[in-house]
Structures are given as structure tokens and as C-alpha cells.
């Protein structure tokens, strides 16, 4: 993300509302502590630093995900970055069950270009983005295709986490690339043959018949 925001790393900012104290540690986590004298007062994690939310070439928020479990899901928090005179946690809400919203004020985002995504990318990824812009302008790709390329760029830059679907797609691409040469194909074939031998032995130990030959 934006390098100038890294100076917030290692610091924590708190906000107290009624009996709860919220603590936001940028690039680390968000926690909530119930400030009562009850023996089972709640204290837990509302999210761990995960990825950025990006909209229209702008970092619009930080997603803190995979916090403590809450019914069937994990708690998660979106942190909105807004311009302010000092670094402070200004507002906390829970728009839906176990999904929290934090507003963090900081002078670090007051400059109109302070949250632009493009300048934070490597030259290679900037070129990839430029090419996508050109393809869209020439109507060689649709808006949807353009957004997909941007998603890939942001994932490659580490700004967004790849979805499971994308991960599977990437892995399958890797596998096909490994068979570009006969040598790689033979090596992979030998490894798979060894694996099948081991699996046949394992199936035999459990009395399960194996149909088919090694060539398959």
C-alpha cells in the first residue's frame, strides 16, 4: 500500500464507547475489550490485517478479517481512512452482526493523491495497467475484462488476497506450464508413478482393489 502510511505500523489507537474499548493497530489487528467488573467480560479480536479495499484507483479502506468466531462466521472490520488533524480512532459501529466499521482520522491521507493505487505499483504492473487501459479504450476488452485484469494486478501486488477460485486457477496454470518441455513431463510422470505405487500399496493394506495400470 501507500508507503507514507507505514509510519502507522507498530502504533495502536483506542476509542471508548459506553463499556467497550476498541483498539486499532494499523497493519496488525482490531480488538475490543469490555470494561466491566463482570467475571466473563468480553475481550477479543475483531479482525486481523488482511487486505485493502480498492475503488476507482483509490485505497478506500483496510479490511481486518478472520477475527474471533461469531456464530457461524469470523468477526471482521472495515477501517475507513479519512482526513483529520491528528491520528485518531474517531468512530466505531456494527452495521451488521459481527461486521464492524471503524473511522480512522489521519493527516496522512489529506493530500488528494495520498491514496492513489497506481503510484504504489511496480513499473511492470503499471505497464500491465496501461495496456489494459489501452485495450479498454480500443474496445478490445469489456469493462468486466478490464476489472478482472485490475483484480489480477492488485493480487500480484499483494494489495488484495486471491479468492479460492483464483488460487485454483493459478495452480492449474502452473501445472500446465510445467509440461512445456519433454524433460519436465518425464520428471513429473516418474513422480506420479512413484506416488501411484505407494497408493496401491496403501489400498492393498486396507483390502481395497485397485483397477487400472500405471500408464494411466
Topology:
Blueprint: E1 13-17, E2 20-25, E3 29-34, E4 43-55, E5 58-65, E6 69-70, E7 73-74, E8 76-83, E9 88-96, E10 99-106, H1 123-137, H2 143-156, H3 164-177, H4 182-205
Parallel strand pairs: 8-10
Antiparallel strand pairs: 1-2, 2-3, 3-4, 4-5, 5-8, 6-7, 9-10
Averaging pLDDT over every residue, what do you get?
86
Q: Report the count of strand segments.
A: 10
Helix content: 25-40%
CATH level 1 name of the largest domain: Mainly Beta
Oligomer: single chain
Order of helices and strands: EEEEEEEEEEHHHH
Q: What spatial order of strands do you see in the largest sheet?
A: 1-2-3-4-5-8-10-9
Strand-residue proportion = 25-35%
Largest sheet: 8 strands, mixed
User: How far apart are the first and last residues' alpha carbons, in Å?
Assistant: 47 Å
Helix-strand category: alpha+beta
Any idea what the shape is?
flat
Provide the number of structural domains: 3
**CATH-defined superfamily of the largest domain:** Mannose-6-phosphate receptor binding domain
CATH topology of the largest domain: Cation-dependent Mannose-6-phosphate Receptor, Chain A
Radius of gyration: 24 Å
GO molecular function: transferase activity
Protein name: N-acetylglucosamine-1-phosphotransferase subunit gamma
Subunit structure: Homodimer; disulfide-linked. Hexamer of two alpha (GNPTAB), two beta (GNPTAB) and two gamma (GNPTG) subunits; disulfide-linked. The alpha and/or the beta subunits of the enzyme constitute the catalytic subunits.
Keywords: Disulfide bond, Glycoprotein, Golgi apparatus, Secreted, Signal, Transferase
Amino acid at each position: 500500500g501507500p508507503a507514507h502510511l507505514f509510519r502507522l505500523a507498530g502504533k495502536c489507537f483506542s476509542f471508548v464507547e459506553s463499556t467497550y474499548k476498541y483498539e486499532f493497530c494499523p497493519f496488525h489487528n482490531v480488538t475490543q475489550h469490555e470494561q466491566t467488573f463482570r467475571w466473563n467480560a468480553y475481550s477479543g479480536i475483531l479482525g486481523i490485517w488482511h487486505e485493502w479495499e480498492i475503488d476507482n484507483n483509490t485505497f478506500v479502506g483496510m479490511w481486518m478479517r478472520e477475527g474471533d468466531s461469531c456464530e457461524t462466521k469470523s468477526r471482521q472490520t472495515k477501517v475507513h481512512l479519512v482526513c483529520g488533524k491528528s491520528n485518531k480512532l474517531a468512530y466505531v459501529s456494527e452495521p451488521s452482526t459481527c461486521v464492524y466499521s471503524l473511522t480512522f482520522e489521519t493527516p496522512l491521507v489529506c493530500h488528494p493523491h495520498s491514496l492513489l493505487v497506481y503510484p504504489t505499483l511496480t513499473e511492470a504492473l503499471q505497464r500491465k495497467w496501461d495496456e489494459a487501459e489501452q485495450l479498454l479504450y480500443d474496445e478490445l476488452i469489456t469493462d468486466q475484462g478490464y476489472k478482472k485484469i485490475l483484480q489480477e494486478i492488485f493480487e500480484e501486488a499483494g494489495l488484495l488476497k486471491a479468492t479460492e477460485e483464483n488460487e485454483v486457477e493459478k495452480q492449474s496454470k502452473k501445472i500446465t506450464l510445467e509440461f512445456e518441455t519433454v524433460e519436465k513431463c518425464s520428471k513429473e510422470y516418474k513422480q506420479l508413478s512413484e506416488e501411484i505405487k505407494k497408493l496401491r500399496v496403501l489400498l492393498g493394506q486396507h483390502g481395497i482393489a485397485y483397477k487400472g495400470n500405471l500408464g494411466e
